[in-house]
Amino acid sequence: xxxxxxxxxxxxxxxxxxxxxxxxxxxxxxxxxxxxxxxxxxxxxxxxxxxxxxxxxxxxxxxxxxxxxxxxxxxxxxxxxxxxxxxxxxxxxxxxxxxxxxxxxxxxxxxxxxxxxxxxxxxxxxxxxxxxxxxxxxxxxxxxxxxxxxxxxxxxxxxxxxxxxxxxxxxxxxxxxxxxxxxxxxxxxxxxxxxxxxx
Length: 199
Ligand code: IMP
Hints:
The chain is α/β, with parallel strands linked by helices. It is built from 5 helices and 7 strands, in the order βαβαββαβββαα. Strands 1, 2, 3, 4, 5, 6 and 7 form a 7-stranded mixed β-sheet that branches. The model has no long low-confidence stretch (mean pLDDT 96). The site of inosinic acid has 18 residues, from β3.
């Protein structure tokens, strides 16, 4: 692929946009996100799986812009509470809750269980251009700790320690998180498949 190709990342989450833009830096894909446009209606994520929600976002944004789209749906699954919050990760503590509210709710739920609180992040990523669809998935296993550590990243990062690490995701730099994260795995796989498919 020698020409630059504009792709819209169907997200207005600044944390995700930073990570995904960095992952596509070494390609000819120019990543724009919903943060670059005004008047984009809110997308209701009412799918029951990460895959359903990722496809929903990809299709809605494709319909709007009629240009190739990448989308993801992601979340945290905690073993002791039946893989909650799962697809509800963004709104675990209620409709317009903050990341902090979600973390506090999760630690409240987990106080009834012994440590370690094993958990994993899941990311389902999709490329969609109307006639073509490419899928990829990534996971990051680790555990939830009972305190907030670090200022980087977003969401549940301050209370999640990846397996084999002593630091939370929020104590890692963007570059370090992008070497191991669920989103990096999913989008690196997606990127390779896109490079093979889009000539
Ligand atoms: P969605 O994929 O936009 O529906 O939102 C996923 C939600 O899962 C985010 O709002 C976060 O709460 C959580 N989440 C997903 N990926 C990450 C991550 O890399 N770090 C921390 N939290 C995440």
